[in-house]
Amino acid sequence: MRLKVLHTTTYHFDTPVSYGLQQLRLVPKSSAGQQVLNWQMEIEGGSAQTSFIDHHQNQVSLISFDPQATSIVVHCAGEVETSDEAGVIGKHGGFAPVWLFQRPTDLTRAGPNVRRLARGLKDEIEDDIPRLHALSTRIIEAVAYRTGTTGAETTAEDAIEIGSGVCQDHAHIFIAAARTMGYPARYVSGYLMMDDRVHQDASHAWAEVHIPPLGWVGFDISNGISPDPRYVRVATGLDYTEAAPISGLRFGNAGEAMMVDIQVQQQ
């Protein structure tokens, strides 16, 4: 399947910003199940300073704001050829060792809520893949998909306590629970072609677990499936903070409004 992606993120500031930097992880990876055919990125209100491949094999671009900027716009466009690998990415790559993905982070630290969701699965289900799909089912039953109830800093434990969240929260809960069962697990940010719409106001997130001998295998908790050809992987990390599409800093107290427009459709 050939997917065309258009992604525009716009930041408006109510007063001029004297200095700002943003770190962008917006370039998809060519890997098992996907091949990037072309990809372009344009910046309005700022300029690219450098780019590099990080320890998760994410392509990262660093951009600076133009002096006294009142807005900055990031445009991405490209095409990706995808195939159905049943969510299997395969062998590990990058500088970060596999064992690192068993380390908890502030967003994925397992407490009593996470441990309750994972309890008994290792004894009840023998095989890894069915066991992890069962974990995914438990999570979506405990934490309904609902926007506006959580934020970027919501932890896995907090999202379970709230009882609702979005794909980011589902991924963090799944990662935290998988690690308690001994699996290396990581966060994935990317795109999903929706069946009922072209325009979206946010990118998508899911999780991957390292399962020998298969290697990394994806699980989209929010949709209850492993990724198929409708998915485009962009960045991976221990949690959202290491795979966020855009993160940064700026000087001053300017108020900020952000708008995101994403289009994913089959060519």
TrEMBL record:
SUPFAM superfamilies: Cysteine proteinases (SSF54001). Pfam families: Bact_transglu_N, Transglut_core. Residues 159-223 form the Transglutaminase-like domain. Gene3D superfamilies: 3.10.620.30. It comes from the Bacteria. InterPro entries: Bac_transglu_N, Papain-like_cys_pep_sf, Transglutaminase-like. This is Transglutaminase family protein. It comes from Rhodophyticola porphyridii.
